[in-house]
Amino acid sequence: MILERISVADGAELLTIRDARFHTARLSVTLFLPLSPETATENAIVPELLSHAGKAYPDMTALSRRLCALYGAELSSSVASVGDCQMLTLTVSCIDNRFALGGEDTVGACGELLADLLLCPHLAADGLFDETVFLQEKRCLCERIAAEVNDKSVYARHRLEALLCDGNGFGVPFFGDGKRAAALTREAATNAWRRALREAHIQFFYTAADDGAAVAALLKKRFADIKRQPCTLLTVPLAVDTVRRGEEHMAVGQANLTMGFSIDAHEPDKARIAAARLTATLFGGCEHSLLFRHVREEMSLCYYCSAAFNRVKGMITVRSGVDAADAGRVEKEILRQLARMQAGEFSDDTLAAARRRLIGSLRENEDLQASLFSWYRAQALYPPFVTPAEAIRDIERVTREQVIDMANTVRLCGVFTLLPEEV
Length: 423
Fold this sequence. Notes:
By secondary structure, the protein is an alpha+beta fold. Helices cover about 40% and strands about 20% of the residues.
């Protein structure tokens, strides 16, 4: 695997990931913008509108025909977040030129298609997004926002993030707010697209067998006349002086206990990130972890209990499903397991098992083009890019003493409990 970074325009870059294992080529573009309540909703609808039609393909029928002509190329869009930033993504995947039956430049055609959709969307005569398409995607956005509450574990995590990060973008839902979505206008959505082209940090990702030189030349040409004023993107590491608590009652069968911890490791310190990754995995990131083995298995206090490390915010989130009557006991036991880890009360075998599990999960990022894209997209704002193999080497170097030292930087910052409705 060979990586190369190529500047496309001011604040716009192409990362080529040269890998001949795959039979397809994949080109993605992600627009990174500050995540704020004022703009999150109107930004969130933009990728859906762009992937629906373009100036050259004014409806889904014309666009679908073009994709079919390119050996069944696939087009997708998504909205997500990293740290305090919102990510708007368009992706096209197609057969690699090596396998085109007639020697066609399928990759180049898909690159032109992606550029057309991003830079020249289908607009109505008044210069705004088509009303029919807009109303359809507005309805879908409202439904996505409303549906978040159906996944209670994710809902509780988002409520904890809002509790801890009310002063920065991390606490803002990346799909935005339901009321703002209901009030969204064509003018606001069109202005959001224009603002994103002008101000976003733009990162292209290209995965194929070739070096990406042709794709880079195409993108440079298409962006030559685009006026850019890239904004500054900042993510503030988690810093909460006192433990913040919140709870909510809902029609649920079991309670969700979600705890947020700060940890002294975040981008761009790659060495400390490696130690924090292993610490979080030992704490609650695998079936060998302290939380899984003791809180869930031995004590049977919860239906699930896991920990995840956020390397951008310097945060560990612990999520567990519990009986409402046991929520307080589970919280105390999670903190007790943290204290055990801080005191070094874990075996070398347990640490080795956690290390193997973490290395295995990191290695899985190399198996699929979509996984590679997700891996590198999460690093786009914090170069240099680290490959999965390099991350694995860093994990292999982390010592037991470093894990204990890192564990002793972990501090409880917030607790959110989602409880059944009171009878």
